[in-house]
Each structure stands twice: as structure tokens, then as C-alpha cells.
Design brief:
- It is a single chain.
- By secondary structure, this protein is mostly helical.
- Among the domains are: about 1-85; about 125-260, Tetratricopeptide repeat domain (Serine Threonine Protein Phosphatase 5, Tetratricopeptide repeat); about 420-560, no CATH class.
- The chain contains 25 helices and 2 strands.
- It has helices at about 1-15, 25-35, 40-50, 55-60, 65-75, 125-135, 140-155, 160-175, 180-190, 200-210, 215-220, 235-250, 250-260, 270-280, 285-300, 310-330, 335-340, 350-365, 365-375, 390-400, 405-430, 440-450, 460-465, 470-490, 495-560; strands spanning about 100, 105-110.
- The chain has a two-stranded antiparallel ribbon.
- β1 (about 100) and β2 form a beta hairpin.
- The radius of gyration is 31 Å and the shape is globular.
Length: about 600
């Protein structure tokens, strides 16, 4: 390595002695690869007189060139070279110093200059700070965090603030006090990419988001950070977050670009391919969508990075469901049925696939299989987990097709009796929080159903299980639960720590809890509004079907009046003959787990 390094330094001296010797992207990356210091590469670039194009800047970014080198290339770029290599979107307006808006009142710094531009994990600095860091290295996390917190409170070393915050956050992280750690890591990240601790703090924020399943803090900053400043350890997660954020804003092309940059070795690769399939589907590129979903389904689990095995299987099942939906939309119902049937029965998406499969078989006119699948969806095994009111509408519609009009009437009347009060409650609740004061009252909306004394409600456990599947709302609820556990941990510590750093952390937790609760309340109101509309649509469909039942009964009575002997057909015995591969077992109202998904009705119907 020393020999290679001296050769490159000799080349640098040669570059410095010549006029306007242009440097290529690859030459710069080669220097970085053999550990040439960034400042020497920058000096060489300055001496070369090169003008860097947008493509060359993008090449440096993709090659993970040091951030100082990329910034220098930009400053030496042609007028056409974009400031953000063409990949940042919706990131706010950056000023000349590189800072950008952070939720309007906050900023993400870019012009902070601290001592110690090298690796912040190296020793160096005031002895009292190094003593506190040494306590951290010796795994004395309480002592280290207390000492570092005291230094922050005294404000004795303002130029070392980021270093103190970083190690304080690390101490809290190793104490498994993740919210406190998140607070101090975020303080470091707010100082911006030019701060040497930025690239170490941001991956820790990613790790905390993965632990608590809540990306709300990362989503506050990710679009403010130029992609070339994403630390290597966090790059895939941040690309994924940017893709998600842009997808939710409807910027499908930009979102797809971010998803496509995620490494195939990342545990987010399968998720990114899944999103690519969703985007292709929404853009009407159905063949590309099916290909992307098949790639997810056929992916080798051993190549899914650190992704949990159950999550891998669930994602594969979601891919199957989406392929089935595409074939359903094309009215290729046999193929849709085949893909729905592949969904694993242990998947949390299995009940959803059974319901959609029931619709598919309804369209295939296999009404008895459709009813059998709905019987599984309605079984007690899913009563507290799955809120699928549309299954009842489909059941009524299926009996209508079989001319079993009395069954239809009783099914739909029960449906309306159960769901009208639910919709009425949702409407009254939404009315409480409408208007200009809605944002201020959002925390009260959350407490109404999830607070310490929730109100009486006609909304079922399954209904709230569905509401909490809203990713943002569910993540916020889990994070607030984590805050509660953290307060218990703080209260259990010794008074000297609890009454200083612990008290400050509790104060911060309460402030953040208020903010999270408002966000959770807003997400809850949005989700309830969706369910209000959904239930209204279903109740409207129920009324239409019942109207059709009355008209069909009128025609049926008229037919029977004209043909008095028609009742003779009702005396026909039911034939229970089945295939040799099937055992016929009459259903007596008991559900057994191994029978779920295999039910089939033997309805011949009353149609003449």
C-alpha cells in the first residue's frame, strides 16, 4: 500500500507542475481508492484547471468520492452541471452555504466547521471530553452519558458540541434508551453533511427507525440531504425513504429512480422491487409490473440481506396478490385464481387473499367455492384481526345469484344493523374535530380511542386492527409505547443520573410525545374518514341489492303463480357426490384450523 501511495503522490506532484492537465472522474476515484487524503485530491483538482460536467459529477457521486471532492467538482463545474446531480427532489431551497429549510423553523446546517476533520472516532480534543469517551469505550454508559451531558449543560466546549452529542447519543443507544439517543443523533444530523459526525450519526438514526418501526424523524430530514451526502452505511435505507416519500407525493418517475439505486445485497432490495412493481402497475405498464412482482416472489431469501424470514415470506405473498390483481383486472380469472391460491396460509395476508379469491371465483361463476372461501374469512380465527365488511356484501350477492332471496335479505339486514351505528359514530367523531381547530385538537382525537381512558365505542377490535395497519399511525403508536418504557427505565436509575440527564430526557420525551400524539391523531382522522366513505359505499350497495331482491321476488312469485307445479322441483334430494380426492364432511358450525380455506358449499340454488 505504501508503494502505491507514493506512486500516486508522485503523480500528484506532476499534475501540480503542469498547466491545465484535465482530470477524469476515474482518475479521481483511483486516488480515493488508494487512500489519498481528500484535501490533496482537492488541491490537485484546483491545479488541473478541469471543468467538470454533470455526467462527471454524477460519476463521482456514484463512485462514493469524498464529499469535499464532489463539492469541489461542483464548484468547478460547467454552467449546465446541476447542483444536486439531478436526483434530489422536493428538498427545499438551499442557500449558498449549503443549508436548507428544516420544517420551516429549523435548518439543516451545511457551513458548520469543527476541529478534527478526520474520523471522529479517533482520540483528540480536551482531556475531559476524552475521559468521558473513554468511559463509553469501557462500557460505563451511565457514567459516560452523565459526564457528556454535564459538558453540554456547561457549554464549555462549543466547538466540540457535535462530538459530545454524538457520544452521548451512543451511550444512550447502548443503554437501549432509543428515543433519547434519537434526540441527540438528530442534533448532530441537523448540523449538516459538512459536519464530520454527520455520516456517523445518520446511520444510527436509521438503525433506531428500524428498531421502532417509525420513520417519522428520518422523513423530516431525508429530503433535505443531497443524495451524495448519504453515508454509505445508511444509503440504501435513505434511498428507500426518498422513494417512498416521492411515491406518496405521486412523483412516480422520481420515486422509481431512487428504488432502482438500492443495492441487491440490501435487506430493502426486495421491498424496492415490490415498489417498482406497484409504480409500473399505476403507470399502466402491466407486463413490467408482473415481472417486478415475479422477481420478488422468486427471489432467493439468502440474498435478502438481514431481512426477517417472516417479512420475506409476507412480501412474497404480497407480490402474488398483486400479480393476481393484475390478472383479475384483465378478466383473466383462471390465472388470478392460480396466483391467489399460492399465497401461504401462514401469511398475515392470507385472509385478504381469500377474500379477493372469493371475488375471483364469483366472477368465474364458481359460487360454492366463493361461499366456502368467505366462510373462512368470517371464521372466529380472524374475528379480532380482520375487518372485511365487503365479504358480507359479496356473500349476499352470491346468494342473490343463487336466487336464495330470504338468505340475502337476512344477511344484508344484519350487515346494515351492525355497520350503520359504526358509520354514525365515525361521522359524529369526525365532526368533533373538523374546522380550523382540527390540527390543534388532533392529540385529543388520538386519546379518545387510544388514551388512558378510551371512550365507549361501537367500533370493533378488528376495525381498530385495520386502522392501525396504517403504516404511519402504527409506527407512531409503537414509538409512543417505546417512550413509556424509556420513562420507566429512567425512573429506575440512580438519583444522580435520573435527576440530571434523566430529567432532561423525560422533558424531551414529553415534548416529543405531544408532537407524535398530534401526528397520530391527524393520521387517525384521515384513516377514519377513509373508513367512513368505505362503509357508506358498502351500505349503499347493500340497499341496492335488497331493492333488487324485492324486484326478483316479485318476478319469482309471478312465475310460480303461472306454473303451480314448480314447487315439485324443491323436493329434489341434494346430491353430495364428490371427487375421490375429496372427503365430504357436513359443516356443523365448528371451525378447525386445518379445514380453513377448504370449505365449499353445496348450494344448488332456487333459480328456475
Amino acid at each position: 500500500m505504501k508503494r502505491t501511495f507514493s506512486t500516486v503522490v508522485g503523480a500528484l506532484a506532476l499534475f501540480a507542475s503542469t498547466d491545465a492537465m484535465a482530470l477524469s472522474c476515474q482518475e479521481i476515484l483511483d486516488m480515493a481508492k488508494v487512500s489519498v487524503p481528500a484535501e490533496i485530491i482537492v488541491q490537485t483538482m484546483e491545479g488541473s484547471g478541469s471543468t467538470f460536467t454533470a455526467d462527471e459529477i454524477r460519476c463521482l457521486v456514484d463512485g462514493d468520492a469524498p464529499s469535499e471532492v464532489v463539492e469541489k467538482a461542483r464548484s468547478m463545474g460547467s454552467a449546465a452541471a446541476p447542483a444536486n446531480d439531478g436526483r434530489t427532489s422536493g428538498g427545499g431551497t438551499r442557500n449558498d452555504s449549503g443549508s436548507s429549510g428544516f420544517e420551516e423553523s429549523e435548518t439543516l446546517g451545511g457551513d458548520v466547521s469543527l476541529s478534527g476533520e478526520g474520523d471522529p472516532l479517533e482520540a483528540g480534543g480536551p482531556a475531559i471530553i476524552e475521559q468521558a469517551i473513554e468511559a463509553y469505550r469501557q462500557k460505563k454508559y451511565l457514567s459516560s452519558s452523565k459526564a457528556l451531558f454535564d459538558l453540554l449543560e456547561e457549554d464549555a466546549y462549543p466547538n466540540e458540541e457535535a462530538k459530545i452529542q454524538y457520544y452521548l447519543a451512543k451511550s444512550l443507544y447502548d443503554l437501549e434508551m432509543y428515543h433519547g439517543a434519537q434526540h441527540y443523533f438528530m442534533e448532530v444530523v441537523r448540523k449538516g453533511p459538512r459536519n464530520p459526525y454527520f455520516k456517523y450519526a445518520l446511520p444510527k438514526l436509521v438503525a433506531i427507525a428500524q428498531i421502532n418501526g417509525n420513520d417519522v424523524e428520518l422523513l423530516r430530514v431525508v429530503h433535505k440531504i443531497p443524495p451524495e451526502a448519504f453515508p454509505r452505511q445508511a444509503k440504501n435505507h435513505l434511498y428507500y425513504l426518498m422513494g417512498r416519500k416521492l411515491y406518496e407525493k405521486g412523483e412516480l418517475s422520481a420515486a422509481a429512480e431512487y428504488f432502482q439505486q438500492i443495492s441487491a445485497k440490501s435487506d430493502l432490495y426486495m421491498r424496492s422491487k415490490y415498489y417498482e412493481g406497484v409504480i409500473h402497475n399505476e403507470r399502466g405498464k402491466l407486463k413490467s409490473a408482473v415481472k417486478a412482482f415475479r422477481d420478488v416472489y422468486q427471489a432467493d431469501p439468502s440474498e435478502a440481506g438481514g431481512m426477517d424470514a417472516r417479512d420475506i415470506e409476507d412480501l412474497k405473498d404480497l407480490a402474488l396478490i398483486n400479480i393476481a390483481r393484475i390478472y383479475y383486472s384483465l378478466e383473466r380469472f383462471d390465472q388470478a385464481e392460480n396466483y391467489y391460491d399460492l399465497v401461504d396460509r401462514n401469511s398475515k395476508y392470507w385472509p385478504e387473499s381469500l377474500f379477493e379469491r372469493a371475488w375471483t371465483n364469483f366472477m368465474r361463476s364458481d359460487l360454492n367455492l366463493s361461499l366456502g372461501l368467505l366462510l373462512t374469512v368470517d371464521s372466529p380465527y380472524f374475528a379480532d384481526e380482520e375487518f372485511v365488511p365487503e365479504a358480507t356484501i359479496l356473500r349476499g350477492l352470491t346468494f342473490f345469484q343463487l336466487c336464495e332471496y330470504q338468505d340475502v335479505e337476512s344477511i344484508l339486514i344484519r350487515f346494515e344493523d351492525e355497520h350503520r351505528p359504526m358509520r354514525k359514530e365515525i361521522k359524529a367523531f369526525l365532526t368533533e374535530f373538523e374546522g380550523e381547530a382540527a390540527a390543534d385538537l388532533a392529540d385529543q382525537a388520538f386519546d379518545a380511542y387510544f388514551g388512558p381512558t378510551p371512550r365507549d365505542t361501537k367500533l370493533t377490535k378488528a376495525f381498530f386492527a385495520k386502522v392501525l395497519r396504517n403504516r404511519d399511525l402504527g409506527g407512531l403508536v409503537r414509538h409512543m409505547d417505546m417512550m413509556d418504557r424509556e420513562i420507566e427505565m429512567i425512573d429506575a436509575e440512580k438519583a444522580i443520573w435520573r435527576d440530571s440527564l434523566g430529567a432532561s430526557m423525560k422533558e424531551e420525551i414529553e415534548k416529543d410525545r405531544a408532537r407524535y400524539k398530534k401526528k397520530a391523531g391527524q393520521a387517525l382522522l384521515v384513516e377514519l374518514a377513509k373508513q367512513y366513505t368505505y362503509l357508506g359505499d358498502l351500505l349503499g350497495q347493500s340497499e341496492i341489492i335488497r331493492f333488487e331482491v324485492v324486484d326478483a321476488q316479485r318476478l319469482d312469485y309471478a312465475y310460480k303463480a303461472a306454473a303451480p307445479d314448480v314447487d315439485a322441483f324443491d323436493t329434489k334430494p341434494v346430491d353430495f357426490a364428490v371427487s375421490k380426492e375429496i372427503i365430504y364432511w357436513p359443516f356443523n358450525g365448528e371451525f378447525w384450523r386445518d379445514e380453513l380455506g377448504y370449505y365449499r358449499y353445496a348450494e344448488h340454488g332456487s333459480c328456475n
